[in-house]
């Protein structure tokens, strides 16, 4: 049953990625620079190492690096059928439960990692905005003004989503059912981890590197498609575009991430990099699906999930 489901999900994703835009994935792959493409694949692989660090750093109990790494890889398969990132969070929680950790601490570890990750994500966004020269000043240059309006539009979209959660009881109850069990006790778990600063620093470094490795992967994809952007500009486009696009309730944010990231890249780099974004999504979403499915099966066979 899992085999059939995995093949079907992969086929659907391939269709969606190939038809949501005018880009032909086959011609795209044939026309990219192989060196930069290889570096983008390295960046994607490094993101799973970072995710494993970011997960283990918030789990004081010993569960094994290999098992945790397989779970992060399996998340690439699970997120296709669970929009909003909840699939990966639930999978990590399930892994901890099967490792003998009580439900409260297990959910708190996952929630603590997510909270720290969110804070680091926002901090990196502010840092890279500063590097690009963006200043919230109405007398700034035209490019800064355009980027400022783009960021304001992003914030408006986030605000509208927040309003929707407030005024729509059904949507609010759904969100609370997903979020509250995974974030309850997170602060208490962080206080516990504060007594082990080395462990906590390991997790924070991992959470920091997740965004960096993905931004690097996107940067390499832009270079592979002939662009010559600044890394900071690409990082801003990724950090904002991924956050906005992931709010779209589709598997892995398909459609939303591509549109948001392409628009932001056009503003931050001055070039329409649709090809680069599609290549980025092919590498980060489709390429890990089969390894993720295999990892999921291995964990199930060893009763780790």
Please provide a written account of the structure:
With 305 residues, the protein is mostly helical. It has one domain (24-302). The chain has 14 helices and no strands. It has helices at residues 2-19, 25-31, 34-56, 65-78, 86-98, 103-132, 142-167, 169-183, 186-193, 197-224, 231-245, 256-269, 274-286, 289-301.
Radius of gyration: 19 Å
Estimated share of beta-strand residues: under 5%
Helix content: over 70%
Name the overall outline: globular
Write down the secondary-structure element order: HHHHHHHHHHHHHH
Query: Which parts are unreliable, with pLDDT below 50 for 5 consecutive residues or more?
Result: 137-143
In short:
It is a multi-pass membrane protein. By secondary structure, this protein is mainly α.
Short key terms for the protein model shown above:
305 residues; mainly alpha; 78% helix
What topology emerges from the helices and strands here?
Blueprint: H1 2-19, H2 25-31, H3 34-56, H4 65-78, H5 86-98, H6 103-132, H7 142-167, H8 169-183, H9 186-193, H10 197-224, H11 231-245, H12 256-269, H13 274-286, H14 289-301
């Amino acid at each position: 049953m899992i085999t059939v489901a995995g093949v079907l999900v992969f086929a659907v994703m391939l269709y969606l990625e190939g038809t949501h835009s005018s880009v032909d994935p086959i011609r795209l792959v044939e026309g990219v620079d192989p060196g930069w493409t290889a570096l983008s694949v390295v960046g994607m692989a490094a993101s799973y190492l970072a995710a494993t660090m970011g997960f283990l750093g918030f789990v004081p109990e010993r569960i094994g690096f290999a098992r945790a790494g397989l779970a992060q890889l399996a998340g690439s398969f699970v997120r296709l059928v669970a929009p909003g990132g909840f699939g990966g969070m639930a999978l990590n929680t399930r892994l901890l439960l099967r490792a003998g950790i009580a439900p409260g601490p297990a959910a708190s570890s996952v929630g603590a990692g997510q909270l720290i990750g969110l804070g680091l994500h926002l901090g990196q966004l502010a840092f890279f905005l500063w590097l690009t020269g963006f200043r919230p000043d109405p007398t700034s240059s035209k490019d800064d003004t355009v980027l400022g309006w783009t960021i304001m539009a992003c914030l408006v979209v986030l605000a509208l989503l927040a309003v929707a959660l407030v005024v729509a009881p059904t949507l609010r109850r759904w969100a609370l059912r997903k979020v509250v069990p995974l974030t309850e006790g997170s602060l208490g778990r962080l206080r516990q981890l504060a007594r082990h600063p080395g462990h906590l620093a390991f997790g924070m470094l991992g959470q920091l590197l997740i965004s960096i490795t993905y931004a690097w992967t996107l940067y390499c994809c832009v270079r592979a498609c002939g662009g010559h952007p600044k890394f900071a500009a690409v990082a801003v486009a990724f950090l904002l575009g991924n956050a906005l696009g992931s709010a779209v309730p589709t598997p892995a944010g398909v459609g939303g991430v591509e549109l948001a990231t392409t628009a932001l890249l056009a503003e931050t780099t001055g070039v329409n990099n649709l090809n680069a974004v599609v290549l980025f999504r092919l590498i980060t979403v489709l390429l890990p699906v089969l390894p993720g499915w295999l990892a999921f099966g291995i964990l199930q066979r060893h009763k780790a999930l």
